[in-house]
UniProtKB/TrEMBL annotation, chain A:
Protein name: Anti-sigma regulatory factor, serine/threonine protein kinase
Annotated Gene3D superfamilies: Histidine kinase-like ATPase, C-terminal domain (3.30.565.10)
GO terms assigned for molecular function: protein serine/threonine kinase activity
Source organism superkingdom: Bacteria
Automatic annotation (TrEMBL), chain B:
PANTHER family named among the record's database cross-references: ANTI-SIGMA FACTOR ANTAGONIST TM_1081-RELATED, ANTI-SIGMA FACTOR ANTAGONIST TM_1081-RELATED-RELATED
InterPro entries: Anti-sigma_ant (IPR003658), STAS_dom (IPR002645), STAS_dom_sf (IPR036513)
Span of the signal peptide: none
Name by which UniProt lists this protein: Anti-sigma factor antagonist
Database matches in Gene3D superfamilies: STAS domain
Domain STAS: 11-118
Chain ranges passing through the membrane: none
Family, similarity comment: Belongs to the anti-sigma-factor antagonist family.
Species this chain originates from: Kibdelosporangium persicum
């Protein structure tokens, strides 16, 4: 459903596919914490990333086609890059005026979002959001 | 589930009356899926109380912007109903969200329950 991407050659990438349902947010937060912990992020950075992924995925889940999947890809390098996508009926995305967007941009080091055309079948729009978060240690 | 409490898998709200205040003790994670539980508890407390609702968030382990939206909304409705909303929070999850949102001025936060009840 998402556009094909080259796999990360270092093999550190983690991709999660889960029902695009708010009930799955606790699982996504747990996975996010685990990824950040393995990168030795400090507690504040782990908490911020967890919150950021929660906000990003909440925004996507609200717009996802019922019964569809949310895909979240983590690329842990010197920073952690997270790309999340859902399939939506609408291409009205992102809402940069939303409170969630403000929270997200404060929590992350970079933030981008956009829409690409879904595959002919089942159609729809692929909404994506990409954020990065560095470990705060050494930053300040 | 005990009387006077509402709960979800990951969020629980217990209610009690203490002096002039209704105290809502919240335990668990507040996100988009559990925020309605808190909203309902706040509504009920504002409708059934006199002067003050204290929302004790000491045992909240995750606090997303959906939770903040609920509290800001409760504050607004409380104002119209003549009910003051006070928060109790000492942990990072809640304090960080409130700091990021920049709403410290709008939501009075007390470090402990005794302070909020005083």
């Amino acid at each position: 459903m998402t556009k094909p991407e080259q796999p990360d050659p270092s093999g550190d990438e983690i991709e999660v596919r889960i029902a695009a349902d708010a009930a799955q947010l606790p699982m996504l937060r747990a996975i996010t914490s685990a990824v950040a912990m393995r990168q030795d992020y400090d507690l504040d950075s782990i908490a911020d990333l967890k919150m950021a992924v929660d906000e990003a995925c909440s925004m996507l889940v609200l717009r996802a086609i019922t019964g569809s999947l949310l895909t979240v890809r983590f690329t842990p390098k010197s920073e952690i890059r997270v790309v999340a996508t859902v399939l939506s009926d609408s291409d009205d995305w992102p809402d940069t005026g939303a409170f969630s967007w403000h929270v997200l941009s404060t929590l992350t080091d970079s933030l981008e979002a956009g829409v690409s055309q879904g595959a002919a079948d089942p159609g729809g729009h692929v909404l994506w959001i990409e954020l990065t978060k560095r470990n705060a240690l050494g930053d300040e | 589930m005990s009387k006077g409490s509402t709960s979800d898998d990951s969020l629980r709200v217990d209610r009690r009356v203490e002096g002039p205040a209704v105290v809502l003790h919240v335990t668990g994670e507040i996100d988009m899926s559990t925020a309605p539980v808190l909203a309902e508890a706040c509504d009920q407390a504002i409708a059934g109380t006199g002067s003050r609702v204290v929302v004790d968030l000491t045992d909240v382990t995750f606090f997303g912007s959906a939770g903040l939206a609920v509290l800001l909304d409760a504050r607004q409705r409380g104002e119209r109903a003549g009910t003051e909303i006070r928060l109790v929070a000492d942990g990072r999850p809640v304090l960080r969200s409130i700091e990021i949102a920049g709403v410290q001025e709008m939501l009075p936060i007390y470090p402990d329950l005794a302070g909020a009840l005083a």
